[in-house]
């Protein structure tokens, strides 16, 4: 049983959320309450320091999530100190000796992860916040993946989960654990910008788009509306960006790995809502206020049902079936 092997008591996992919205405080609070906290992609040295800080805050297990398009050798080195590595967005391949899972948006991808020796698969439904790999609702995809993989193979379920009944539903469907992003993004410990948290609390509609694609083009993600989406999408009545914008966003891919994370962040701080150079970075504590208008305000469909910011440990307790 994967959770027992990891030493996790409660089948509640805080999803990896990149770009700095998860700091050690959030991940440690989730793990300390018995769930599984997850640090995510940021500069490798920040990830390494974050993991050391989590280890200081809790003795419980901790996961690290790596976005494959951005993961460099230094990220893998930093992640090797975690109890579980979760990968996303790319060909599943074992790069660590320890426990490894891959988040998947289709049956084919889940099959590929299983064949590559993943210790389990996170099944992500289209309701999810952040980058969305597939197009199928969570429970529907879960049934398909379950039928396609051997009995007893560990599956986690992500997307559209916000309360205890949802967690219960995931477990009844056969999931080993429920994975929640948006709910933990809306916690006191999340490092999302305060203004972003305010918009999440007030938010009800989300948009599935590829707008915030600088250096990561044609990658579908779910966000709250803001000035950038109003300019590029609502005005044109199309949630996908014009081809030429994707082309501009793709043109920086070859140089992206040579640009330090701090430089990428400072560029994202300066861009205007009318620029095609919209970055996948979300506004975090310390980001300028203007990023609320120009940054990616990731949110899942559950944002419509969540109206509060709660301490993460309380959330784990409230979610425990
Ligand atoms: C702000 C935000 C950032 C995210 N960043 C990542 C990431 O870096 N890596 C990843 O595997 N998934 C990422 N996701 C997706 C989550 O892993 C997960 O699939 C999703 O949050 C589940 O849906 P929910 O938001 O409805 O709970 C992100 C989600 C959000 C909301």
From TrEMBL:
A GO molecular function held by the record: nitronate monooxygenase activity
SUPFAM superfamilies linked: Inosine monophosphate dehydrogenase (IMPDH) (SSF51412)
Keyword Transcription regulation part of the UniProt annotation: no
Coiled-coil features, chain-numbered ranges: none
Listed InterPro entries: Aldolase_TIM, NMO
Keywords, alphabetical: Flavoprotein, FMN, Monooxygenase, Oxidoreductase
Gene3D superfamilies named in the record: Aldolase class I
CDD domains according to UniProt: NPD_like
Protein name: Nitronate monooxygenase
Organism: Aeromicrobium terrae
